[in-house]
């Protein structure tokens, strides 16, 4: 990864032409908090007037056809190289690497329990300032649910979702997040793959629907919210394709349809690239007339779930190809991740979700990187670079 960054800086692709890295959510939850320091420590602060295209693209060619006018903000989660607690320098290098590859948006993620601490709130404020100063389109995910796991304090764990105490706690989390974000988050997502939880606990559906409606209204009316903020509840692709009974009520209360697209996550075999176009049309059909936010997109390279480096690259190439004719509905796409997760980070990520470290979920989720944990490039990095360049000019 460091060799690639040097190449990008010294002649391959000028670093300034890509406007936006994603926030550094290292591996999942609990988050490893690393303070990157002042935004100036991360290298030059690139002006938003830089052209949004790579030199080998056609944006500067007067004979090239006009680019479509509908923006698609492409992001990349810049988790740092290595394993265990990352060094501040590695965090900065990952952010610059994602920026150099053409990421132009960021999805910052925090659990409510994290936001209850001053340290986490300050770290979020620093991240938001870092990216916002570079003209990045910001999204924020309040991960109160991550698949089957709820991130609530013990005293609230057994209460209904719409209990006054749970609502007050969530409102306070939003207050803390918005105070840190400084009105910069254009998209707000409630939960990640919430259909997994609702399928496992169907008795919670009715209360969660009331809870989500209240929280999204609170987000939209918040005095610190970004102007025109759009909020939605996060589902998995499977929850959209074969909708949980709560999907339509939660979609109705959302401004945008939010989903992760990690086909086959948790199964014995990852999804195939040949299914992507059909899957995209399925998402479009089930999202009704809503615009779509894909908060997590990726495919594993682990052979444990039928993946490989070449299959991962083909997945991204095919995905960006399928996105092009459908771009009028997909407004925000976040690819996971810059680096694979090493054993320690992988273990932290999957254990908090109750998944075995040697199971199919771990093999999938921990091999999504464009580079290995040591920073060695995989073919998928070039697929991302080409895809991000294709959507660099809205």
Automatic annotation (TrEMBL):
Keywords: Signal
Region (Disordered): 35-71
Annotated signal peptide: 1-23
Name of the protein in question: Lipoprotein
UniProt lineage: Bacteria, Pseudomonadati, Myxococcota, Polyangia, Polyangiales
């Amino acid at each position: 990864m460091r060799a690639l960054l040097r190449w990008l800086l010294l002649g391959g692709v000028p670093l300034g032409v890509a406007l936006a890295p994603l926030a550094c959510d290292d591996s999942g939850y609990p988050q490893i908090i690393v303070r990157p320091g002042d935004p100036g420590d991360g290298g030059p602060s690139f002006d938003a007037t830089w052209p949004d295209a790579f030199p080998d693209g056609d944006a500067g060619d007067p004979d090239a056809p006009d680019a479509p006018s509908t923006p698609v903000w492409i992001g990349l989660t810049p988790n740092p190289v290595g394993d265990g607690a990352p060094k501040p320098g590695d965090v900065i290098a990952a952010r610059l690497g994602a920026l150099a590859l053409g990421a132009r948006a960021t999805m910052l993620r925090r659990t409510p329990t994290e936001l209850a601490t001053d340290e986490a709130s300050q770290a979020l404020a620093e991240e938001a300032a870092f990216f916002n100063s570079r003209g990045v389109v910001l999204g924020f995910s309040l991960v109160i649910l991550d698949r089957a796991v709820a991130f609530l304090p013990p005293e609230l764990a057994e209460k209904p979702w719409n209990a006054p105490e749970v609502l007050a706690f969530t409102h306070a989390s939003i207050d803390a997040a918005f105070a840190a974000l400084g009105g910069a988050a254009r998209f707000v997502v409630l939960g990640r793959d919430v259909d997994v939880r609702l399928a496992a606990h169907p008795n919670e559906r009715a209360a969660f629907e009331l809870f989500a409606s209240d929280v999204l209204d609170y987000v939209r009316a918040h005095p610190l919210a970004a102007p025109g903020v759009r909020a939605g509840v996060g589902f998995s692709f499977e929850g959209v394709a074969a909708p949980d009974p709560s999907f339509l009520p939660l979609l109705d209360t959302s401004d945008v349809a939010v989903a992760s697209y990690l086909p086959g996550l948790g199964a014995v075999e990852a999804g195939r690239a040949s299914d992507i176009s059909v899957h995209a049309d399925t998402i479009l059909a089930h999202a009704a007339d809503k615009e779509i936010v894909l908060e997590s997109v990726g495919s594993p390279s682990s052979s444990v779930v039928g993946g490989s480096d070449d299959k991962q690259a083909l997945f991204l190439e095919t995905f960006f190809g399928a996105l092009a004719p459908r771009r009028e509905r997909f407004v925000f796409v976040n690819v996971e991740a810059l680096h694979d997760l090493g054993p320690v980070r992988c273990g932290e990520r999957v254990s908090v979700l109750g998944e075995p470290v040697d199971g199919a979920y771990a093999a999938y989720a921990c091999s999504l990187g464009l580079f290995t944990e040591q920073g060695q490039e995989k073919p998928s990095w070039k697929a991302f670079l080409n895809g991000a360049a294709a959507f660099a000019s809205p």
